[in-house]
Amino acid sequence: MKTTLDIQRRLAELGYDPGPADGIRGRQTIAAVKRFQSASHLTVDGIAGPATLRALFGGATVSASESPDACPWLEQAFRTKGLHERRDNAALREFLKSDGGTVGDPAKVPWCGDFVQTCIALSMPEEVLPNNPYAAINWLKFGRECAPQRGAVLVFWRGSPDGWQGHVGFYVSEDATHYHVIGGNQSDSITVSRIVKNRLRKGGSRWPLTALAVNSGAVIADGSTLVETRNEA
């Protein structure tokens, strides 16, 4: 399976400068993919989907779910896993403002929406974000509805199913009763935690409009070692 680093190196070999070969799908890499797609008479969207990967590397066509661009925002999320709002305050604040905006000091304000926004803004710069993305409930207006699957944005209620308070994070996997979610402000840090399924809001599983159309289905996993989060205030 090809990685973003493989794509960057191949683009550089072909004369399309992707910027630093760092394995991160940033603006320079996206621009290089677009230049390659244009020269190769492919759809110019900056996404290394099945047709683009075959043009770059040859060989058999892979499925969309096998592309490194299937959900780069999830890879971005895992690169920051473990950062704590107090212990790693400086590093976390630097990350949260790296997309050009932030809700504030994560040790003082809820920041789950800020985390989701930053991951998507850095890896999917052309994606339209919801108004006030720092409020978890506003992610119900993001992208399009999808079945819960790897990388989906999951929007939960907190306190009351009818209330405005909530939580937002990314689907990693699930068991019979809980989703396994990587998110910010979970135990005051970026972690993978269990969240009971009945907290998912109606229409609360979302997929970016500019991403590959992936229907990978549920990922079933043992969540017995994960901490359950019930109040992400």
UniProtKB/TrEMBL annotation:
Residues 6-56 form the Peptidoglycan binding-like domain. Gene3D superfamilies: PGBD-like superfamily/PGBD (1.10.101.10). InterPro entries: Peptidoglycan-bd-like, PGBD-like_sf, PGBDSf. This is TIGR02594 family protein.
